[in-house]
Design goal:
Layout: H1 3-13, E1 15-18, H2 24-42, E2 49-51, H3 64-70, E3 72-75, H4 86-93, H5 96-106, E4 113-122, E5 128-129, H6 143-150, E6 156-162, E7 166-171, H7 182-186, E8 198-202, E9 207-210, E10 216-220, E11 227-235, H8 239-247, H9 265-285
Antiparallel strand pairs: 1-9, 2-3, 3-4, 4-11, 5-10, 6-9, 6-11, 7-8, 7-10
């Protein structure tokens, strides 16, 4: 798909799929790395996780007792320097496979990109669903408040990279450009059928880029393997808008220790610039709180 078609489809629908974005070798490497990350998370050894049934941060600090009581649906901080095999995640996050489409969608170059989130969504310990939501607009927002935010540039490219078949993401195409309809506003938060909803179906190696304020939800089957890398990158012009959505995930605690030594010089330069832009965003933002409750 050409760059123009990528951006056109994102602007029209609120999401766009890039098929077979990574090689079979990269896929195998990432499957091994995510299996290791998931293993230490399920044993309670990795502190930053997403616990059931909580949808949004903050989640409790992980432990064997937390895993037993709540169960997990995600692992946080794939580029954290203490994460086993973190070099595989660092290489993927800053790779052309991800950054290339990101630059096309944000219409920018490496120097304008901001390092943001990189987490892992896994098979939940029991069936689990996310309610309908926009990532940075609360459900209590009036139509006018929704439009005020939606009419501003997105300033970020959020993506899911599937390592196994994944049909968990449900979106309402075009909803990133409008306030919720009366039906959507009155619907049950876990409404099974919203008019015009679409299930995003990914094969291993596919990546979907989407506007994080599209109306969407997740439906997760505990009987199906899931290893889907979930990341985003931002544009420097949107730092004030993006700060809360990004910094609420705890990057400040470890960003100074992230290691780029395994990258080639071109990609390492990109990574250093993106990291510096993130640090600058954090310094300017101060305390940010959390975007959503629940």
């Amino acid at each position: 798909m050409t760059a123009t078609k990528l951006l056109d489809q994102l602007n029209r629908d609120g999401f766009v799929i890039v098929r077979s974005a990574i090689s079979p070798e990269e896929l195998s490497k990432l499957r091994a790395a995510t299996a290791q990350a998931t293993s230490i998370a399920r044993s309670g050894e990795w502190p930053s996780v997403r616990t059931l049934p909580k949808q949004f941060p903050p989640w409790p600090k992980n432990s064997p007792e937390v895993v037993k009581e709540h169960g997990l649906w995600g692992v946080q901080g794939m580029m954290h320097p203490d994460m086993p095999a973190n070099s595989a995640f660092v290489q993927m996050y800053f790779s052309d496979a991800v950054i290339g489409p990101t630059k096309e969608l944000l219409q920018c170059d490496d120097s304008e990109l901001v390092m943001e989130l990189f987490n892992l969504l896994i098979r939940p310990d029991r069936d689990f669903e996310l309610r309908w939501h926009r990532d940075d607009i609360p459900a209590t927002a009036t139509p006018e408040e929704e439009l005020e935010r939606l009419n501003q540039p997105a300033y970020s490219a959020q993506w899911n990279l599937a390592l196994y078949d994944d049909a968990s993401l449900v979106v309402v195409p075009g909803s990133h450009k409008r306030a919720r309809t009366e039906f959507e506003r009155k619907a049950d938060p876990f409404e099974k059928e919203i008019p015009d909803q679409l299930i995003v179906e990914l094969k291993p190696g596919d990546v979907v880029f989407y506007n994080n304020n599209i109306l969407h939800r997740g439906v997760y089957n505990s009987n199906l393997e899931r290893m889907t890398l979930h990341g985003s990158a931002g544009h420097v012009n949107g730092s004030s808008l993006r700060a809360r959505n990004v910094l609420q995930h705890g990057l400040r605690d470890w960003i100074d220790r992230v290691d780029f030594d395994g990258l080639d010089e071109t990609v390492k330069s990109r990574a250093e610039k993106m990291k510096a832009n993130l640090v600058q965003m954090g310094q300017a933002a101060g305390e940010v709180g959390y975007s959503l409750d629940g």
